[in-house]
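Lab manual, section 2.4: Encoding a predicted structure.

Procedure: take the sequence of the chain (176 residues), apply the prediction step described in section 2.3, and record the output as structure tokens. A sample record is shown.
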Amino acid sequence: MAAGSTTPSPSAKERSQGERKGSIQVVEFALGKEYFAIDLFDVKEVVEYTTITRLPNVPGYVRGIIDLRGEITTIIDLKHRLHITDASTVAAESSRIIVLDETVTNTKIGILVDDVTSVSTFEGDQVDYTSVSISNEDTAIIGIIKRKIKVKDKEKNELIIWIDIRRLLADIETTA
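Recorded output:
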């Protein structure tokens, strides 16, 4: 991580329009067998799972609410919201909640994920923006991050789906 860097991070809109200069910092997490990332600067903190109080008459992706240090925080089940069906289910107690910065959501919101794996920095040339254009629909996917890993003495690319949590939540707000 570039601690002390004074260069402002490009906005998600600039990146999605082909901005590939500089580095990006993301929080990586798992949903089922797939890996995802969101901008580090959209995250306030990561907390361990706590009991979630269910709410009546809310969309299925709204898991409920928690009391986070005296403040009510709405929890979005990101796996449900992104229609990720995976036969392997993670015990709720081992999942994590990524609490988003209030400047992103204008309210207290956390996203429920299977696991938070790391905070990473990638260079712009490690992101594939062209694969996002497969769908003509408006998508919350900014790009696909390619990380080289070694598997049995062979190098291969691990793919991380970089999502625009702001766009995803804007969509949620309009459908709720």
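Check your result against the sample. Residues 2-175 form a domain with the OB fold (Dihydrolipoamide Acetyltransferase, E2P) fold (CATH 2.40.50.180).
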